[in-house]
Amino acid sequence: LARDDWAATLRTIRQQTAAWPQAAGQAADDGIPFVAVVKALEAQAPADVAICLDAGTFAAPVYRHFPFAFPQRLLASQSGAMGYGTPAAIAVQLRDPKRQVVCMAGDGGFAMTGNEMAAAAERGLPILFIVANNNCYGSIRLHQARTYPGRYVGTDLASPDFALVARAYGLQAEYVTRADQLDDAIARGLAADAPYLLEVRTSLGAILPASVSHAAGSELVPRGDSHAL
């Protein structure tokens, strides 16, 4: 390409790069779109934060909207295997005690290895656990909705009360059921000097194709307002 063509191409790439993270997510009335959680965390995350992601559709807004800058770190499962987030966060916090560590997991992945938060409680590791609970295996439901709308098999979850489970392990925990509670809840979690868990009622409808009605998703009954246990 000629010099002018290259300049025009680079301008287009820069415009697209700037616009991509700003794209609005699908509106939802069945919970909090997880992009709101990511943006609230971004606004408060310290310069050295290490974010450990489990696998699932909840993680897509992190890749898209969180502008990682050195020395911030992202650790995630390249293979898409669920259950990575909690043990990864514990390992990072043990290896680098002065770094702020945040674990983000869906309800399915957290149900697989979330019991390892016992190690965080035992050692007093100040990890912020954020559990996105939509009572569903969201990634599988997304493919079902695209290919077989209305035919959902094996993707509904009878998830436990994760905040109460965390409390049983000795963590502080709270529920977040509205987007306007996110800033304060995340601030409390980041300021804690011990492990802290936020169970966020997240939207299933927001991750499904726009043509799929929210009514097709599982209904998640709120367990209460945002409050520390």
Write the layout of secondary structure elements.
Blueprint: H1 3-19, H2 34-44, E1 50-53, H3 60-65, E2 73-75, H4 85-95, E3 101-106, H5 107-113, H6 117-123, E4 128-133, H7 138-147, H8 162-168, E5 172-176, H9 182-191, E6 196-201
Parallel strand pairs: 1-2, 1-3, 3-4, 4-6, 5-6
Helix pairs in contact: 2-9
Write up this protein.
The chain has 229 residues and is α/β, with parallel strands linked by helices. It is 38% helix and 13% strand. Helix 9 links the parallel strand 5 and strand 6. The N and C termini lie far apart (62 Å). A 6-stranded parallel sheet has the order 2-1-3-4-6-5, with helices on both faces. The chain contains 9 helices and 6 strands; from the N terminus they run H-H-E-H-E-H-E-H-H-E-H-H-E-H-E.
Q: Give the termini distance in whole angstroms.
A: 62 Å
- Helicity, in percent? 25-40%
Mean pLDDT: 85
Alpha carbon gyration radius: 18 Å
What is the number of helical segments per DSSP (H or I, 4+ residues)?
9
Sheet of most strands: 6 strands, parallel
